[in-house]
Design goal:
Length: 396
Amino acid sequence: MSVYLDNQAAKPVDERVVSEMMLYFNEKFANPASLHYDGDVATDILEKSREKVAKFVNAPDRADIIFTSGATESNNLGIIGAAMRQKKKGNHVIISEIEHISILNIGKYLEKEGFRVSRLPVDRFGIVRLDKLEKYITDETILISISTASNEVGSVQPTAEISKLAQEKGILFHTDALASESVLPIDVKKVPIDLITLSSNDIYGPRGVGALYMKKGVRVNPIIIGGGQERGFRSGSENVPGIVGFAKAAEIMKEEMPKESENLKKLRDKLIKNVLDTIPKSHLNGHPEKRLPHNAHFRFDYIEGESLILTLKEHNIAAATGSACSSKTLEPSHTLIAMGLLHEEAHGSLLVSLGRTTRESDIDKLLEVLPDQVIRLRKLSPLTPSDFLKKNEEVK
Ligand code: PMP
């Protein structure tokens, strides 16, 4: 196994989660909808799991949790479902320019369905412009969807302020919490968000399971129609082993997050300091302080991020250039462009994301390899200082 520094693309499933799930594959495997005793056992574990996920976000009632197949589906249910439900009230939805591709594409879908979708700009640190949010809101605005943090550059968004503004204006607020849920606590009693996308894998549970937290009284239209499971909000037989794993992961995460986040922050800070100190013309993308404890996103002038990833691969180090879901496109990251970077700058990025299994030796290994490889790639690079000039600048 390589030195794994791509935890924002996928996380390993915690051993304790795997053991908890095993029983529900071939021993207690019944369908919760079945009326026999085994069905009751499945219903019981399903509801206990719902309770644990509700506790993870400090929700008052387990009924506030709707299980889904993951973050993409939760985003669809939370945004399309809420927009469709409120169509008679208004047709305007606000997202940000730096949302995950699943939300950007939901925005395009809503436009085809006749909604007006505004994309809130961000500052050079990748933080949404709150001053503009108020100006974007009209009488037609029915929903704001802004992620808790950027899954790329790690900037943490002012979720509490957005929630307050949305509440004052009577607008629903949805947030995709995937990027931050393993490192920043969610407390819906303190910050009363209406709809929250949660994912199991991002807290070291199995992939293919997620949830939508839905505040009491908030309603969405279902997007998957069928047998009426999950109180009619999400049909389809529940993935009981996956949900059991998700719940166990949530229970562990709630307990271990404070200490774990602190450790990740120390490792991240060591990495950032060393990279910026030892590699000339290296930069940190995203906010220096308001950033996810497990995220370090760099850019190096004159090199291509993809070449760097392949070089690191040769040294058995797994990292990324940005969001895994957009990694196959040749386009520069929409997040970096929205932050005002040039295409050349945006192409030179490296996303290092740490996790529960990251050790200091992993960071040391990266720090040992990275500076030489950046120098080597720069020697091969056709890019020159003039490619990095913003308008009105001159080569010094
Ligand atoms: N939202 C964010 C912020 C993500 O990073 C991702 C991908 N990891 C998703 C949504 C989609 O998650 P999934 O592919 O598990 O549905």
